[in-house]
Design the sequence.
C-alpha cells in the first residue's frame, strides 16, 4: 500500500477524498431524532372510583375494561394496574396502527360500556406519556372551584364532572384534582366498653374491613370475550355498619352499636 501511494500519489489521494466524501454524504443522510421511537404506540385508559378497594376496582372496573379493549383493532399488549380508588390501563398497538382511528374506536367502545360500570365511574382515554417525562411536566392551566357545598361534596362533584370533559379536548394529556376531602366515616370505640367486653380493637377493625368483600367466582364468555364474574358485598349505609356482629370474649356476639 505504501509503495502504491509513492508510485501513484494522485490516484491514492483521490481515492481517499472519494471515500471521505461518501462518508460525509452518508452521515448527512442518517436520520437524527432527539427522542427516537423505541416503543410501540400506546394509549392510556384511566379511571377513578373513590373509596373502592383494589379488589373491587379489579373485579368491577379493570376486568370489564380489558375485555372491551381487547376488541379494538391493532392492540398488541394490555398492562393494567388496579389500586384503591383508581385503575390505569396501558394499551400498546401495532406500529402500523392509525392512532387517531384507534383512539376514536377505543373511546366509542368504552362509552358503550359505561352502563355496565359502577355509578360515577367514567374511563378516560389519554395519550401515553412515559413516567420520566410525566414527572417533569408542569400544569399548563389551573382552575379553582368554589361553591356553597361541603369540601366532600365539592370534591365529588368536581371529580365526576370536570376531568371527563377536559380530557376530551385535543392535546390534553391528563387532568388532576386536588383539594377538598373524600367522604369518610370515622368510628370511635369506647375504651371502657371494649375492655369490659374483652374485645381487641384490631378485631373490630378487621370485621369492618371484611364488609368490603369482593371475590372472583369465575368467568363467562360474552360476545367472544371473557368477562369476570365476581361476588361483591359491602355496607350500604351506616346502619349496616352499626349492626355488624362482632365476637367478644366467652363466645358472646355483640353489635358494633353496643
Sequence:
Amino acid at each position: 500500500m505504501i509503495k502504491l501511494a509513492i508510485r501513484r500519489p494522485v490516484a491514492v489521494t483521490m481515492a481517499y477524498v472519494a471515500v471521505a466524501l461518501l462518508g460525509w454524504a452518508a452521515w448527512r443522510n442518517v436520520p437524527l431524532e432527539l427522542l427516537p421511537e423505541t416503543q410501540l404506540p400506546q394509549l392510556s385508559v384511566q379511571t377513578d372510583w373513590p373509596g373502592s378497594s383494589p379488589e373491587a376496582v379489579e373485579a368491577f372496573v379493570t376486568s370489564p375494561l380489558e375485555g372491551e379493549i381487547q376488541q379494538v383493532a391493532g392492540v398488541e399488549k394490555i398492562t393494567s394496574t388496579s389500586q384503591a380508588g383508581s385503575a390505569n390501563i396501558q394499551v400498546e398497538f401495532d406500529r402500523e396502527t392509525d392512532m387517531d382511528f384507534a383512539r376514536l374506536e377505543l373511546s366509542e367502545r368504552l362509552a358503550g360500556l359505561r352502563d355496565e360500570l359502577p355509578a360515577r365511574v367514567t374511563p378516560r382515554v389519554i395519550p401515553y406519556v412515559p413516567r420520566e417525562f410525566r414527572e417533569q411536566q408542569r400544569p399548563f392551566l389551573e382552575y379553582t372551584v368554589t361553591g356553597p357545598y361541603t369540601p366532600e361534596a365539592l370534591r365529588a362533584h368536581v371529580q365526576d364532572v370536570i376531568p371527563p370533559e377536559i380530557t376530551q379536548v385535543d392535546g390534553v394529556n391528563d387532568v388532576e384534582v386536588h383539594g377538598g376531602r373524600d367522604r369518610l366515616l370515622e368510628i370511635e370505640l369506647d375504651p371502657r366498653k371494649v375492655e369490659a367486653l374483652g374485645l381487641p380493637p384490631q378485631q373490630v377493625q378487621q370485621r369492618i374491613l371484611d364488609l368490603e368483600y369482593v371475590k372472583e367466582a369465575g368467568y363467562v364468555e360474552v360476545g367472544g370475550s371473557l368477562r369476570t364474574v365476581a361476588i361483591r358485598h359491602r355496607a350500604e349505609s351506616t346502619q349496616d355498619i352499626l349492626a355488624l356482629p362482632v365476637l367478644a370474649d366467652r363466645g358472646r356476639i355483640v353489635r358494633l352499636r353496643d
Observations:
- The first strand starts at residue 42 and ends at 48.
- The mean pLDDT is 76.
- The domain at 185-258 is CATH 3.30.2090.10 (Multidrug efflux transporter AcrB TolC docking domain; DN and DC subdomains).
